[in-house]
Amino acid sequence: MKLNQNIIDMEYAVRGRIPIRAAELRRQGRKTIPCNIGNPQALGQKPITFYRQVLSLLEEPNRIKIERNNQDSHLSDYVLDYAENFLEKMETGMGAYTDSKGPLFIREAVAKYIDARDAKSPEGILHANPEHIFLTDGASEGAKNVLELLITATEDGIMIPIPQYPLYSATIQRCGGTQVNYYPDEENGWTLDREELQRSCDEATANGVNIKAVVVINPANPTGAILDRDSIKQVVEFSLENRLAIIADEVYQENLYGGEFISFASAVKGTDVPLFSLHSASKGFYGECGHRGGYLEVRNLPQVDDNNIPFIDVLFKQASVNLCSNTVGQALMYLIANPPEIESEQYQQFIHERQSILDDLFDKATMVRSAFDEMEGVECFGKTGAMYLFPRLNILPKDTGDFEYCMTLLEKTGLTTVNGSGFGQKKGTHHLRFAFLPPKEMLERVLPEWIAFHKNYIR
Ligand SMILES: Cc1ncc(COP(=O)(O)O)c(C=O)c1O
Ligand 1, atom 7: nearest CA belongs to which residue? Predict the structure, then answer.
């Protein structure tokens, strides 16, 4: 049977040869430390209690009444009211298909969340339109839909940052388009500048590529870098001048550890640059990867060439073929957009859990960064954001690359990382990506082993 070559050719290093070898080692009884993927609850991060209390009631609505009549119930009236209220608005419950975009009341909540996020931006806000928000099964689905829509032929090019999260290279491949690389400036904290964007665009155009969009991941995966205002401005100006759309992957917008998040929604205000912005329930302090919640927000809808169908209708049609995104993911996006109110009984616990998760992540990133200081030839640039560090390995044994480094690190210490080459990197450089999620005690144990391994390996 002949299969789709585009799918055969797709690569996805995050679940590639190193994690496959790690799984083999585990089957042989070895302990491994999975730092290859941003999957927080797999490494012991506890879910936010409020979210799970509400979700459990949504799935078992009869319990709302039972818990109300139970003097000893551990659920507060606030949680019971919240769940009841949600189900009233949901109308058809959790087991029915919803509107293809997701229920309007959830999209309205998401629009308010976006507005509140951007309210502090110096540009001021342009209200998000709930009709331009699509709830999705994670951000991956939103990204796939947008790329599928934009790529019409092999010559259609999508600019992606190198290094990048391989969802983008894989999906461009799958859709049969052309990947066009641009390179953030590593030594300047992975900032972006107009000249590099233009160089990449001009070179591809000279080779017959028709660039449609530029992908920006902020905070970034795999580098963890947080983009500054100037970098974002440069991307918007570049896109405006070259008539390109921006695909802003902003799934780590709450993983900032003191850094500032500037949304592309605020940055494109006053321009007509089409923007596709993605968010997810998988990341932030929520870490609900398995529940597959997300949204796609579209601004400055472009005209559809040679057709008078409105752009939004095409997106709607695409969403309709999937019927709807899953309802638990939808409910999570509602919970993220609508956290407990300040005066509620749940508020203190919610804030405490949120802060502890974020503080813990930052402490772990700091521990790992300090370990790099003890490794000769290892440099890590940029502010800490997202869930990753992407150190550069300046010294490696002759004729070896980062893949060999990561594989040997796994064999010797059980640490499972991803080689930089899996994300793409500037020619001649070597990196690895480290997801700073394992519990502190585990890091305390393994970091000295890594330092010793490194010393020995580069000798
Ligand atoms: C930058 C980026 N975008 C998208 C995703 C996928 O997110 P989701 O689980 O919402 O599909 C990830 C997952 O790691 C990611 O790092």
Answer: 139
For ligand 1, atom 13, the nearest C-alpha belongs to 38
Q: Is the pTM of this model over 0.90?
A: yes
| pLDDT tens-digit series, residues 92-111 | 889 999 999 999 999 999 99
Contact 158, 213 (CB under 8 A): yes
Interatomic CA distance for residues 57 and 87, integer angstroms: 9
- The Cα–Cα gap between 375 and 379 comes to 9
**Sequence-ordered strand ranges (E) for 245-380:** 245-249, 275-280, 294-299, 378-379
pLDDT digits (tens, 9 = 90+) for 185-242: 999 999 998 999 999 999 999 999 999 999 999 999 999 999 999 999 999 999 999 9
Pocket flag, ligand 1, residue 138 (CB < 6 Å)? yes
**Tally of residues, the chain:** 459
State if residue 221 touches ligand 1 by the CB under 6 angstroms criterion: yes
| Among the listed residues 395, 415, 403, 414, the one whose alpha carbon sits nearest the alpha carbon of residue 457 | 395
160 lines ligand 1 (CB under 6 A): no
Q: List the strands of the sheet with 388-389, edge to edge.
A: 388-389, 432-435, 418-419
The verdict on the CB of residue 139 being under 6 Å from ligand 1 is: yes
Pairing type for strands 156-161 and 210-217 reads parallel
Residue 222: asked if its preceding bond is cis (omega within 30°), the reply is: yes
Tell me which residue has its CA closest to atom 1 in ligand 1.
221
Q: How far is the CA of 318 from the centre of ligand 1 (A)?
A: 20
Q: What is the 3-state secondary structure (H, E, C) of 215-253?
A: EEECCCCCCCCCCCHHHHHHHHHHHHHHCCEEEEECCCC
Is the C-beta atom of 36 inside 6 A of ligand 1? no
CA–centroid distance, 136 to ligand 1, in Å, is 12
Q: Are 245 and 235 in contact (CB under 8 A)?
A: no
282 lines ligand 1 (CB under 6 A): yes
Which residue has 């960064």 as its token pair? 369
Closest CA relative to residue 346, chosen from 205, 144, 338: 338
Is 256 close to ligand 1, i.e. is its CB under 6 Å away? no
Written as six digits, the tokens of 75 are 């659920």
- All domains of the chain, ordered by start, with CATH? 5-45+350-458 (3.90.1150.10), 55-93+340-346 (no CATH), 104-337 (3.40.640.10)
Residue 38, Cα to own-chain centre: how many angstroms?
A: 9
Using the atom order of ligand 1, give the atom closest to the CA of residue 37.
14
